Amino acid sequence: MTDKAPERSADGTVPAPQRKAAPADGAKRQPRGESRRQAILDAAIEALARKGQRGLRLTELADSLGIKHSNLIYYFGSKDRLLGEAVEERERRENWFYEAHTMVSLAELPEAAELIMENALFTRLYVVLAAESLDPDDSLHEFFTRRYHRARQRITNAVESDKKLGKIRPDVDAEQVAYEVISMMMGLEIQWLMDPAHVDYLRIMRTYTEGLFERFGPAPGAAPRE
After folding, report:
1. Can you give the pTM of this predicted structure?
2. What is the 3-state secondary structure (H, E, C) of the chain?
3. Residue-level pLDDT at 88
4. Residue 96's pLDDT band (cuts 50, 70, 90)
5. Average pLDDT over every residue of 79-103
């Protein structure tokens, strides 16, 4: 006895409830499948960091990995989902740092710079994809909007913490400092990625951080807060 063929709609397609869900939707896989999926994701990250999402061709990516285009779709479902997984991969890899290091002072900025340098590929990935996501209807626009908002909020919190410790003057606008710091770091990232041999990212960030305290710190001779 043969299985009954699934009913089809007027256009010949199988209705959504009868379609097999793609493993990219959270299905559990064997270790071998997870390894293959991670290999695809790693290759996609490298390709996106070099060419951006507009230059990414799924057929070319599949060919470079020696797999069929259908196999790539099996793991990720669509190009948009692959893009989302790529940017979230950096979030996952950085999560340990941000969970363990609640930023309480601008003095920690060089630590963030070290993390950026240690993850140069992901730094380039974000620089390239963010530049392609300026329009509100771009698929990653909201992702980067939220990320920059979180980054500014971390700096704002650090400034407020330094104020309480008497390291920063009470009249300093924490939000304005946050915009400046993020702008500085993003601009420096681009220069460093383009010319790493002549742009010492960490040294510049250390000097810049010292300058922030010189500009916004209490007047010489002022008693520190207890």
Report:
1. 0.74
2. CCCCCCCCCCCCCCCHHHCCCCHHHCCCCCHHHHHHHHHHHHHHHHHHHHHHHHHCCHHHHHHHHCCCHHHHHHHHCCHHHHHHHHHHHHHHHHHHHHHHCCCCCHHHHHHHHHHHHHCHHHHHHHHHHHHCCCCCCCCCHHHHHHHHHHHHHHHHHHHHHHHHCCCCCCCCCHHHHHHHHHHHHHHHHHHHHHCCCCCCHHHHHHHHHHHHHHHHCCCCCCCCCC
3. 86
4. low
5. 76
